[in-house]
Amino acid sequence: MLIANLYRQDFPVPGFTSQLTAAYNRNREDGATHYDSNGFVERPASLGRQVPHDYDVLYLGLNGDGIWGAPT
């Protein structure tokens, strides 16, 4: 998992902070079935199709904090 956070103060107006966040998750299952200490299947998931999953997920977020324009 990789997480990156970038922020800039006073952008796009003075008194406002903009922030961009990105989170990347890469999962590669080896195809073997894995059991926990109680004998229950942990991998692949015991619900739905019980096949290994390989996936890449990217989450992006944009947010801001502060005031926009002159306070009233």
Describe what you observe in this structure.
The protein is mainly beta. The chain has one domain (2-66). The chain contains no helices and five strands. The protein has strands at residues 2-9, 16-28, 34-35, 41-43, 54-66. Strands 1-2-5 form a three-stranded antiparallel sheet, with no helix packed on it. The termini are far apart.
Number of structural domains? 1
The helix content, as a percent range, equals: under 10%
Could you give a short account of the major beta sheet? 3 strands, antiparallel
- Helix and strand sequence: EEEEE
Tally of separate helices: 0
Could you tell me the strand content as a percent range? Answer: over 45%
What is the molecular shape? rod-shaped
Q: What Rg do the Cα atoms give? A: 21 Å
Properties at a glance:
single chain; 72 residues; mainly beta; two-stranded antiparallel ribbon; 0% helix; rod-shaped
Topology:
Elements: E1 2-9, E2 16-28, E3 34-35, E4 41-43, E5 54-66
Antiparallel strand pairs: 1-2, 2-5, 3-4
What's this, in brief?
By secondary structure, this protein is an all-beta fold.
